[in-house]
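On clarity, I found the account of how folds are encoded harder to follow than it need be. What matters is that the chain and its backbone geometry are given together, residue for residue. I therefore recommend that a typical entry be quoted early in the introduction. An entry of this sort, consisting of the sequence and the corresponding backbone structure tokens, reads as follows:
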Amino acid sequence: MSKVIRLPKKRRLWPGLIIMLVAVYLLYSFAHLALALYQTNLQLQAYENQKAALLQENARLRQEIQELNSDSYIERVAREELGLVKPGERVIMPAQPGQVRPYKPPEPGHQFRD
């Protein structure tokens, strides 16, 4: 009887190489998407922080507008910065040495608006 000797089959590298390339591509794609998601989340957090700061500034500015429109603020500015007085009031201002100016009374017939 004669024995048949079988030679080992040649292993083909192509299927294993293709599977490895596909795995590397999928891993790269996943890493790329994960990085993009991370960067997007960082940007979203920065926008949310900016939004919170803008909302806080908006609230502060609205409060300032209310204060500027109040009667007490308008009266204070009229008295302190514009030198206006109500009818019948007399202005008494402390004089600083070297900064005294002569008082010029209003012209006759000049009326102050309330």
About this structure: The radius of gyration is 43 Å. The chain has a mean pLDDT of 86. Residues 14-80 form one domain. The chain has two helices and no strands.
